[in-house]
Amino acid sequence: MNKKIRALERGLDVVGAINDADGPMSLGELHQATGLDRATILRILATLEDKGWVYRGMGDSRYRLTYKLHELGRHVSVDDAIAHAAAPVLDALQQQLAWPSDISVYDGDGMAIIETSRRKSAFVINREVVGYKPSMLQSAMGRAFLAYCDERTLDTILRRLRKKGGEDGRLAADLSYIANTLGQVREKGYAVRDPSQSSLPSETTEEFNAIAVPVIVLGDVQASLNIVWMKSAYKDVAMIEDHFFQYLKPAAEELSKIFHEHGIY
């Protein structure tokens, strides 16, 4: 009987634990799942990250499998693949503009933020947002998705919102509101958040603005990409929205290309 390579076995145990989990895992969860000590797990994760097999989220510091495994036909969720592929683009945007960005996907119930560069920003802007679900009809990301999804998807989402009730349900029943709001998004090329929307709880009392654009692959909206900034930073809102759009649009196009090349859609 051939001897086993213990180090490799431990590495595969970590990969297997991430694969079997319902979502991205923390170091503590990996320790509980594998029984390995934390120092060993950290060394394994560092090696797996270096080789491109595992990715640590910027927004939540949790570990997930990368699209490298997705390409090989192994198990990795599309959402995690999108988060991994989007991270360098979010990082580049933050480096260019100083303000952070988020990427969200429609999960059948609403938009869900799956990655963010907020922790890397010098500005304190609601950093704990991974997993947060913004309004479909009042957030920039929800509006960007709805404005560019196909008619059948739009009708299905609006029907679900009406059934659920609440403010989004009321707005979903207002056909004039829907037509005007989504028409404005298509005209500009980007969506803005409803001014009545309050910002998420934060360490600062500042209010925030945001614009968002869709990430489209083969005619279908796969995600929404935004940029967020403090309202007090700029007086000319229309000017700064147009300025940020000049960076956000090519970033979304770059993501579309990455998603298509790696089959993440």
Automatic annotation (TrEMBL):
Keyword Ion transport in annotation: no
Pfam families (UniProt xref): HTH_IclR, IclR_C
Recorded superkingdom: Bacteria
Keywords tagged on the record: DNA-binding, Transcription, Transcription regulation
Gene Ontology terms, MF aspect: DNA binding; DNA-binding transcription factor activity
Claim: Transcription is one of the keywords in the record: yes
Ranges where the IclR-ED domain occurs: 68-261
Stored InterPro entries: GAF-like_dom_sf, HTH_MetabolicPath_Reg, Tscrpt_reg_IclR_C, Tscrpt_reg_IclR_N, WH-like_DNA-bd_sf, WH_DNA-bd_sf
Domain annotation HTH iclR-type: ranges: 5-67
GO biological process assignments: negative regulation of DNA-templated transcription
SUPFAM superfamilies named among the record's database cross-references: GAF domain-like (SSF55781), Winged helix' DNA-binding domain (SSF46785)
PANTHER family assigned to the protein according to its UniProt record, in alphabetical order: DNA-BINDING TRANSCRIPTIONAL ACTIVATOR MHPR (PTHR30136:SF23), HELIX-TURN-HELIX TRANSCRIPTIONAL REGULATOR, ICLR FAMILY (PTHR30136)
The name this protein goes by in its record: IclR family mhp operon transcriptional activator
Native organism: Halomonas organivorans
